[in-house]
Design goal:
219 residues, alpha+beta, 3-methyladenine DNA Glycosylase, Chain A, 9-stranded antiparallel sheet, DNA-binding
DNA sequence: AACAAGATTAACT
DNA sequence: GTTAATCTTGTTA
């Protein structure tokens, strides 16, 4: 068992950067599940925004009617989805919301995992007072459009690497939410026919995530 | 060139 | 429960 204490009673958070190979699995549904409970870190000018991923959806590329890359649609918008796994795919939805995806699988396979909600943990003091930040931080990261606004993610992050330690990345802090993960069909993709019924959405309630994080003595 | 639809959200009634 | 906001994209002509 690793000792994460810093010798000063205060728990130190284990920041284990995920290896690049993590993103190269072709099991995008398994990856979407595995990303639940991982930390999403965003570097700002003067601080780090640390949150835990609480909801994801898998988009399985060219064979998935719900995916932007369905039926080999390789266009200016979807090109980044064909990149080697480990970069962001950001697009504008309904003309106003930026949605954050994590591209997975080796180059040429346009898999992606949509981040649908996060639980903010630290580094959000600057947005607490804003409408976006809201009084209730637990709720402020719920919804794919809200979390990007909270984190300040826009089209500039399209194609941004998660493996260079620069602006945004994922870490493993040892949290295991497996027993709390609910699996459902995906949201807002009724146009996808039979694929709309696939069990590709993974979610853990924010209140449970909050409880488990406190129980583990993290943050 | 025109047009419909969209991996959503907030503010209504 | 319903609807406006808002604009890029993919499709059709």
């Amino acid at each position: 068992m690793m000792d994460f204490s810093d010798g000063n009673q205060k728990p130190m958070n284990p920041h284990i950067i995920i290896p690049d190979e993590f993103y190269l699995s072709e099991d995008v549904v398994g990856l979407a599940r595995d990303m639940i409970g991982k930390l999403l870190i965003k570097r700002n000018e003067n601080d780090l925004m640390v949150s835990v991923i609480t909801e994801t959806e898998a988009y399985a590329g060219e064979t998935d009617r719900a995916s932007h890359a369905w039926n080999r649609r390789r266009t200016a918008r979807t090109e980044v989805m064909y990149s080697n796994g480990g970069v962001c795919y950001v697009y504008l939805c309904y003309g106003m919301h930026h949605l954050l995806n994590i591209v997975t699988a080796p180059e040429g396979i346009p898999h992606a995992v949509l981040i649908r909600s996060i639980l903010p943990l630290s580094g959000f003091d600057s947005v607490k007072k804003t409408k976006t930040g809201a009084k209730n931080l637990i709720k402020s990261g719920i919804g794919p459009g809200r979390l990007t606004r909270l984190l300040g993610i826009d089209m500039k992050y399209n194609g941004q690497s998660l493996c260079d330690g620069e602006k945004i990345w994922i870490e493993d802090c040892g949290l295991n939410f497996k027993e709390f993960i609910a699996v459902t069909k995906r949201i807002g993709i009724d146009y996808a026919g039979a694929d709309a019924e696939l069990p590709y959405r993974f979610v853990v309630e924010s209140e449970i995530a909050d409880r488990e994080i406190k129980k583990a003595g993290l943050f």
